[in-house]
Amino acid sequence: MAKKIKVHGLFATNKPRGMSCAKVLELIDKVSRAHAASTRIEMTRRKVVKLGCGGALDDIAAGVLVVGVNDGAKELKRFTKCDKTYEVTTMLGFQSDALDVRGQHAEKKPLPSGLEEKLRAILPKFVGVIRQLPPKYTAVNIDEGTRLHEYGRKQIEVTRPSEPRFVRIDRLELLDYTTRHNYKPIMRKREDSDDVDAISDESKALVSSKSPSESPYPIFKLKVECGGGAFIRSLIRDIGKQLDTPVSLVDLVRTREAEFVLGENTMRFEDLDDFDNIYKAINDHIRLIRKLDYGDFKL
C-alpha cells in the first residue's frame, strides 16, 4: 500500500449493539490519525480525514453501517433513500415510551390467545406503500437539526411531526414466533445520560446468558425489506395496534444497505483497528461499483 496516497471512498462495517454511530466514526478517526502520525509527521495536528455515515442506526441496533471517507462522504446521501433489509425481534406483552426494552415501562396487558395466527393474518396489510408517523425516539431532525431522539432521551416534551409519511415496505417475512427465548424485559427509569459504556452494558443485558426458557412474553422475528425512510419502531408499534397488544423492540439488525450486505462485503468491527483493512475495504467497494455500473458514482 502506498502510505502517502490520500484515501477517498466508501466502506461498511458491522456496528455493534450498544454503540452509537458517532462512536464508530470516532474510532475510525483515531485509527486514521494514528496511521497518519506514523507515515506523515506534518499531519499529526490536523484532521486527517473527513468522515460520515449513511443511514444512521440506533444505539440498540447492530449491522451494516456505511462510512464515507474524504470525498466518499459526498456520496452518503443516496444511503438515506436506498433499499434496506432488517431482521427485527419484537417482544409482546409490554410497551415502553421508547418502543424498546430500554425505555420506561408504560403499558402492560394480558395476552390474548391466537396471537401467532392473528400476526400472520395482518402482516400483508403492512406490505406496499403505507403511512407511518415517526416514533418518539428516532433520528428525524427537528428544530434546525436537533434529532428527535435527543429530546426523548432527556424527557423533554416537543411537538413531533404530526403528518404521517408515506414509506415503502417491499416484503415482510415471519422468521420465528416463540415463547422460548433468552430475551428479558428491562424496564427502568430512563436517565439523562449519553454514557456509551452504560448503554453498551445495558444492551448486553437484554439477552440472558442462560439457555432459552419459557417466558410469559412471546417474541416474533421479522425480516423486513423496505425503501429508505421506513421507521422500524413505527412498523412494530402499528403491528401491535392491529394485534391490540403492547409491543417492544428487543433486537434490530440491518443486514443490507444498498449494495452492502452483512457478512459479504462489510468489515468486521474488530478489524477497524488496522487502517490497512479500511483501505482494502474501500478499494474492494470501488471494484464492486465498477461491476455494478453505478454511472453517477464519482470518486
Question: How would you characterize the overall build of this protein?
Answer:
Belongs to the pseudouridine synthase TruB family. This is tRNA pseudouridine(55) synthase. Keywords: Isomerase, tRNA processing. This protein is α+β, with helices and mostly antiparallel strands. The chain folds into two domains: 9-81 and 260-292, no CATH class; 84-257, Pseudouridine synthase (2-Layer Sandwich). Helices cover 25% and strands 29% of the residues. The protein has seven helices and 13 strands. The chain has helices at residues 21-39, 78-81, 115-122, 148-153, 196-204, 232-243, 275-292; strands spanning 9-15, 51-54, 62-69, 84-92, 94-96, 105-108, 128-132, 141-142, 146-147, 165-181, 213-226, 247-257, 260-261. The strands form three sheets. Strands 1, 2, 3, 4, 7, 10, 11, 12 and 13 form a nine-stranded mixed sheet that branches. A two-stranded antiparallel ribbon has the order 5-6. Strands 8-9 form a two-stranded antiparallel ribbon. Strand 2 (51-54) and strand 3 form a beta hairpin. The longest helix has 19 residues, at 21-39. The protein is elongated and about 65 Å long. Residues 42-47, 141-149, 151-158 and 189-205 have low confidence and may be disordered.
Low-confidence stretches: 42-47, 141-149, 151-158, 189-205
Structural class: alpha+beta
What is the rounded Rg? 20 Å
Give the beta-strand count: 13
For the record, the count of structural domains works out to: 2
Question: In the CATH hierarchy, what is the class of the largest domain?
Answer: Alpha Beta
Mean pLDDT: 82
Write the H/E string, N to C.
EHEEHEEEHEEEHEHEHEEH
From the spread of the alpha carbons, the general shape counts as elongated
